[in-house]
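User: Predict the full complex structure for these chains.
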Amino acid sequence: MRLRTKKFLEEKFGKYYSNHQLKTPPSLSNREWGFIPLNKDFPEKTVMKRHKSFSTKQQLQSYLQSIIPVHVYFSSAYYERPSAPIMEEKEWKAADLVFDLDADHLVGAKNLTYQEMLKKVKEETMHLLFDFLIDDFGIDRDELELVFSGGRGYHIHVREEGFLDLNSQERREIIDYILGRGTQSLIKEKKKKGAKIPYLSSKSTNWNNRIKYYLFNNILSEIASKEKKDAINKLTSYNGVGEKTAKRIYRSIEREETLDRIKKNGQLDIARGLPKSFWEQLIEEAKQQIKANADEPVTSDIKRLIRLPTSLHGGTGFRVTPLSITEIEQFNPFVNAVVFEEDSVKIYSKDNYETTLMNKKIKIEKDEIKEIPEYAAIFLSCIGKVEVEGW
Amino acid sequence: MIDKQKMDQELARYPFLKKAKKYVEKSNTTTEDLVEEKTFSSARTRAKKRIIESLNQGIIPLFITETNIQPHTEFYSYPLSRILISCINDRYLIKRYSLAESKAFEKRIKTEPTEQIINVARGIGIDSVKLKEEGGFNLHFTDYIKLTTNLNEKKWKLVNQTIEKGKVSLTRDDFERILQEGVRRKIENNLPVEVPKEICEKLTQPIQEIKSALEKKKASFQTDIEGIIEEELFPPCIKTLLGKVQKSQNISHTARFTLVSFLLNIGMSEDEIIDLFEVAPDFDEETTRYQIGHIGGNKPQDQYKPPSCSTLKTYGLCVSDEWRCEKVSHPLGYYEWRVKSEEKDEAEN
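Assistant: Here is the predicted structure of the two-chain assembly.
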């Protein structure tokens, strides 16, 4: 990044920290803070200044105005001495429970555009939020903070009592639940006339019930409603299912009574020669759909540094945006996380790139010099697509 | 008067409840009184018995079956046990004792009305527990997790439970099991207590008796027909696993396999290994015996060998923090090497 681009970003970020009141976490003085300054090697090499602490919001805010960081983090942990230089001396007291949903952890996210990626992560976040955190865990809506990370995903901070003193192993139990890890086998076998018949366990747990629901209402009914040829194609894609068995399965699940019967007595012997592994594959498929893809290390780490909501993300220039749970559905980072002005800025583009910001299409071509709105210049500088001219 | 009797009865059965402390304070009984006064001499005998039985039987016999013990004797024997154990301050003893107390507790609670179970649960700080209308209990899942992380069986994982709006539903049996774990943890975490030297000195005799029972117990799983089984000489990976088991921590299936096959291969007997695992909170003798038997095989040649160093690395079980680890490819190789060099050292001395 050229020096003048850095100067430009520094001025704009500085102005943001002077003109905006930050939202600070509860127990501010017990948190450790970390910052990545916009030094000469940015963004190739970054050095984190950490072990900082502040007793008031004003102190923090004036510190930000003086060093103008590109990234701002605080500890999910509450410490007795947050500024102690080594972890043992900080004296850990408690920690917020944090969930991190990141495009990096989504299957198939690689081939998506940034826009599409964020849309997908948003769906995943809502899934975690509503189905797991609110429905299953009963977490009070007022005790959680939902945030767009400014980068590739969303964070959820839980500050309800009872969660704060959980240790790392106990937090791992929570993430195992969300990922569906360690479920007891849903398929049992019983002997009938000398043959082993697989059947679905009747044990009612949240996961078992969700898997069964998905199995019946998504996988099996979808296959049953397909044209025969497509259904056979789909069925033979499972290991251990040949053309013949696939035809038998299709003929069986085509009839509504078959599904009704499985629902009633759990018996899975719907087609001759059907291996147990077929059902195991379906269940695995269901589990992949039911789980919420939160990042495990973040949740189980009780000493994590995490981005400060309302600060700026130096990798995009977006605001790390706090959201109420009613806002997330309509939230569009490319409009709602943009905090900069319309004023024209002359830039030089290093690459071809196209995006939509503030509902306006922004298109640049390599080696072109042109004027674009300030907010676009900041976003494109941060992602490394342009340099600012004449600054 | 009736109230006092009822109170005495309850505290004699559940002496670890929060209100027991208040009760002692109110009665103006000091630690000195407990260790010196004649009124407490049968409580002192009972205290010693509590500990020795925990070593020998793994459970503390219920006093109700021993008609000659008064509730107040039984009750005061509990703080006295804690004093004795703290004077000795041995990790194994603390674990073994806490487990034995909790097992006795589980037996007792089985015959109690559900209200009493709730009382006891709240009395050890499990505040979120509630009786369900349709039977059974529910408790907040954070409390559930805190109480079950040390239970290895898959069924205890949160993912295999029914949760509604933060409440885990449990049958009475399951809740009793969890409560037992809560009691065990509470007792263990609050030991040792600080006891002035002068107090311990007044208890020299029972302390000696307990110590010799403890030595005997420890010796029973440390000696071996083939001579030395020296924990000191175990490779770091095995030491780490053994430490975890003895600290009642959860270890993975592979880790368990590694540990057991190692111990069998160096000549430890099934009973000795059972003794080592006994301090694990979800210890189930039958299951453990089955697993050991499986790894051990029927004939010596059927016995499984522990995984090699490179396999252990893959599983993340290698902690290689020692130069010797660089020189060997198998944990058994490490041990043989160390035993040999130890013997050589001894010969030279």
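Residues 223-227 of chain B have pLDDT under 50 and may be disordered.
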